[in-house]
Structures are given as structure tokens and as C-alpha cells.
Amino acid sequence: MPLSRRQDLIRALPYARRYARALTGSQPRGDLLVAESLRGLTVAEPGPMPARLCLYQWISRQFQPGPASDAETLNTVKRKLLLLTSLEELSIADAARVVDLAEAEAAEILSQAHADLRKVAQTSILIIEDEPIIAMDIEDLVRWCGHEVAGVAATEADAVDLACRTKPGLILADINLGAGGDGAQAVASILRRHKAPVIFVTAYPERLLTGEAIEPAFVITKPFEPMTLAIATYQAVTGGPSFD
């Protein structure tokens, strides 16, 4: 494999891990899927697509979904297209290439998937965010997605206390809480007492997606659009727990 191609794949790894983890609902399963895909890519004849898209394509092809849950309304192709276009911010044309569909067919399926999101099972969401204005924006987005706000915490201590009292169905946490502590530590404390899916929000997702430690299965990059949150909450609630 040419050195430039190898370097492109290395640069694509954080984003591939984010996609695979969101698709599988698990850090270990997602990272294993990325590793298997990367091994396949390194011995395959280079295709015409950019390295990042090729890695997404191998992940999409090798992914084997488990049994559908009672809450699931989106099939695997719809999930892939939603994650690729919203979480990974690909164009419909590029997402269609990744999942081996014609662009028009992918656009139609994606439109159906957006409509299906409105049927998602509602849950209560604990928001961990120290910036008041951002917290209010996230509250509005959570309600726009059809969910309830279990509470808003600006510090580690408040987050743990709120989680113990409200038992949220999902946790949406910023990483950096400023003087209020660390969002990841708050989540770790909560998960020792109460199991719930977790979505981390950060402006620097690549710092969380190194594959070197226990990391989140679901990561949203700041700033994010309402549809990104809607897709991430759906996948987190129906796609599996945030940690194995």
C-alpha cells in the first residue's frame, strides 16, 4: 500500500471508530469492526474512493446486526445512512457510495428514515453541561426530539445526584465542565450506580476516539444540528449500551 494511502487511513481512523461504535452501540465491538475492516483494506486493491470513504464502506459491509429490539423502527440501511450523513456529515452522494446504493435510492431511503425517527421511543435525558446558554439550547433540542429532560447538571456532583434521583433513560454529557469538574468522570460515577446509554458532546471528538482506553460508543461534535441529536439518541436508546 502506498505510504500516502496508509497515512490517509490513519487520519480517517478516529472518524471510522465513531461511526463503527455508533453503528454497533459498543466501543469494543466498534473498534473490532474497524480493525477487521482495516486489515481487509490494507491487502485489497486500492479503489477509486478516498481512504475515509473506503474505510466507512468496509465497516458498513462487514457489520452484522444483532436481533432487532422491540423499540427498533429503523432497518440497518437506514441507520447507516442516517449516521453517515448526520454524525459523519457525508453528502448523500458519498453515503450512497459507501452503502453501495444509487444516489436517488439512498435519498429516498434517507427521507423515509427521517420520517421513521418521529416514531422513536421517548426517554428521559439527563444533560450534563456547564455553559447555561448551551444547556438551554440542548434542552430545546431534546424536547424537539420528543424526549423529556430529566434534569440539567453543571458539575460532577450535581450530575451524580440528579442521576440517582431521576434514573434517566439516557445521559447527554459534555466532557469539559470547567470548574465543575470532568464530564467523563461524572458519567463513570453514575454508571456504577445506574446503567444508561451515554452520548458525549465535545468539540474535539478525535481526542476521545484513540482506541487506547474505555471510551464512549456515542460522540457528537459541537456544534451539532437537531437531526444529529435525534439520530444519536435513537441509536443510543435502541443500538445497545454505551459501555460493555
TrEMBL record:
InterPro entries reported in the protein's UniProt record: Bact_response_regulator, CheY-like_superfamily, PhyR_sigma2, Sig_transdc_resp-reg_receiver
Entry superkingdom: Bacteria
Keyword Phosphoprotein: yes
GO biological process: phosphorelay signal transduction system
Record PTM 4-aspartylphosphate, positions in chain: 174
The keyword Phosphoprotein belongs to this UniProt entry's keyword annotation: yes
Residue stretches making up the Response regulatory domain: 124-237
Pfam family, one: PhyR_sigma2
Keywords: Phosphoprotein
Gene3D superfamilies: 1.20.140.160, 3.40.50.2300
Record-linked PANTHER family: RESPONSE REGULATORY DOMAIN-CONTAINING PROTEIN, STRESS RESPONSE REGULATOR PROTEIN 1
Name of the protein: Response regulator
Source organism of the structure: Gluconacetobacter sacchari
